[in-house]
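pasting for ref
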Amino acid sequence: MGVLRFLLALSVAWTHAGLPKGLSGDLCVTIFFVISGFYMVMVLSENRAYGKVIAFYKQRLLRLFPTYLVLLVLVLVFIASYMIPAIGRDWVSIGAMYRKESHLGLFITWLLSHLFIIGQDVFLFFGLDPSGAVIFTSKLSATYRPLADFLVIPPAWSLSLELVLIAVSVCAAVILTLLVAKPVERFRHRLLRTS
């Protein structure tokens, strides 16, 4: 399964690099998420004990965050060293958009999402119109200025989505355990007592 995921990730990188067409990058991302979801369910079903599930999530976070934070620092150093001097005024104008009072919440969201990864996927659904107003968008390529352009590490949106799905799966597992497993267990005990 690891080889297939690697090939899918390579196909996505191929698409982003603008090389001759291979598999669709969108299709590869979708298949990658399906396989990752299957893998996560498989791992969680093998580690049913609550402590093992929590250990799985802690291990996953410990694998993601240090690497992400090191990459974030390296990219920020690169931006500060090479891109700001090269872009000059354009970079300042991007910063000015975030200094608008109406964009304070957006800037805080941007900052927190870069520190904690979670929330970066939200930037795929919004953009700026020519006046600088934030708008919802269903198609990034048709947006005047997609907010995804402001992500320091653009592929990190997929990590954000993974962390959200992990949180949702934990909540779903807890709810299902409380709603289904506990009553079934009590019912089974009652049956055993009466027989």
